[in-house]
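FW: tagging you since you asked about this chain on Friday. Here's the raw sequence from the shared folder, copied in full. Didn't touch anything.
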Amino acid sequence: MEKGYSQEQIIILNSRDNVGIIKRDVKKGEKIIIDEEKYQNSIEVKDNIPYRFKIALENIDIGDTIIKSGEIIGKAKEKIQKGEMVHVHNIEGLRGRGDLKNK
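HL: got it, structure written out here
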């Protein structure tokens, strides 16, 4: 497992992650600088996002998995643009669901 990194505005826990964790409240239109070319070195924030919430690091299609800490935590219920908040309104959680164990 590749390690993630923490920067001034965002934490990315694993190089496989498609979401990061915001380290302070951010406003729509702000740019988050990321010291990694994989993300084109910045993300434009599409929503007001509170401290410790998730932000999409890339465009995510309906049904795509949401990956945080290198682990699948959910599935997109709708298209999520790079820079949008990722939360219960646009993902279906898959962690801790006993109904999925045998599927």
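FW: The radius of gyration is 13 Å.
HL: agreed, and The chain has a mean pLDDT of 86.
FW: great, closing this out.
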